[in-house]
Amino acid sequence: GALPPGCCWGWLLTFYSADSCSEQGRLDWNHSRSRSATGDQVLMTNIINEHEICVVALKRSGHHAIVQWLYANVDGGYLFLNQCSPAANPFDLKHIVKKPEKRFITNIDGLDAQTACTGVHVPKQALIYNYEHMSLDQITAPVGEGQHERWVGASKRRTHILALRDPFNNLASLLKVYYAGTKYSVRLLRRSVELWKQYAREALGQTQLLSHRLLIDYNRWFTDVSYKTGLAQQLGLSGAGAGLQEVAKWGSTSSFDGTCLDGQAAQMKVLERWRHFVDDPL
Questions:
Q1: In terms of C-beta distances under 8 Å and separation of at least 24 residues, what long-range contacts does 189-196 make, across chains too?
Q2: Strands (E), the chain
Q3: What burial class does residue 198 get, using C-beta atoms within 10 Å of its C-beta: 0-12 exposed, 13-18 middle, 19+ buried?
Q4: Half-sphere exposure of 106 (CA within 13 A, CB side)
Q5: What is the second-level CATH architecture of the domain 10-272?
Q6: Is 156 exposed, middle or buried (0-12, 13-18, 19+ CB in 10 A)?
Q7: Packing angle, helices 186-203 and 167-180, rounded to 10
């Protein structure tokens, strides 16, 4: 897809690659370990989540499609908790029950929000939750390890995914919603620019606030099969081809297409949204 003349996105595209996971991001966090008498084998006990994945992204960044792709390629049971608040329990029943079909997505038989939010955790292959349009300082506010495990259960591996879309198309999608008059304000748009810069600095390694970090360039993820395959391998997914054509109905869908291209999501012109607002004064 074409980008605006003189687009600065190239330096981030160059920076991003399937190998761009930081050294921290390759580490597994192992809990409650005990060694056999010979010391040759490490036994895991009390592990609830084989992989705990926290997705950090802006509104209209395409990260809902990335989340759907993640859980569609999990080999086993998954739970996705949508629009969580930082420094708080992701299993927040009051938050979830307002829109359970949008905030509690799972393939685990018999698992419901009422049960999951009691603190009795069910073993799963992947626990995924997201923070949307929040500063990295908010997201990384200190929470004790013991408290975190009481909230979500012990995890064998943890990953922060930082999903970033190019600023031109990201802001164009925000403007589309703004001009529809349903929500968003000029203040939010300006805040979006500042947050994008903050996320870009983190992506470039100028800050290192997110531990166990994996960077996903949405533009490249959308267009490059080999890039998706590399990411899937790093994340331990069963593949990279599932969940690509459906529009995530638990999200706010596309600001341009809605759900019109559900089943044909790859046909969305997500890399050309900027053209609609190339002369916009904002």
A1: 189/282, 191/133, 192/58, 192/59, 192/133, 193/167, 195/58, 195/133, 195/134, 195/135, 196/58, 196/164, 196/167, 196/170, 196/171
A2: 33-35, 42-44, 47-57, 78-81, 104-106, 124-132, 154-155, 158-164, 213-217
A3: middle
A4: 21
A5: 3-Layer(aba) Sandwich (3.40)
A6: middle
A7: 160
Domain boundaries, the chain: 10-272
The predicted-structure confidence for 231-252, as pLDDT tens digits, reads as follows 999 999 999 999 887 767 645 5
Q: Give the C-alpha separation, 231 to 233, whole Å.
A: 5
- Note the pLDDT tens digit of each residue in 95-123: 999 999 999 999 999 999 999 999 989 99
Percent of the chain with pLDDT over 90: 59
**Pairing of the two strands 213-217 and 47-57:** unpaired
* Residues linked to residue 104 through DSSP beta bridges, in sequence order: 81
Residue 154's identity, in one-letter code, is A
Q: Which residues of 31-51 are buried (b: 16+ CB within 10 A; e: fewer)?
A: eeeeeeeeeeeeeeeebbbbb
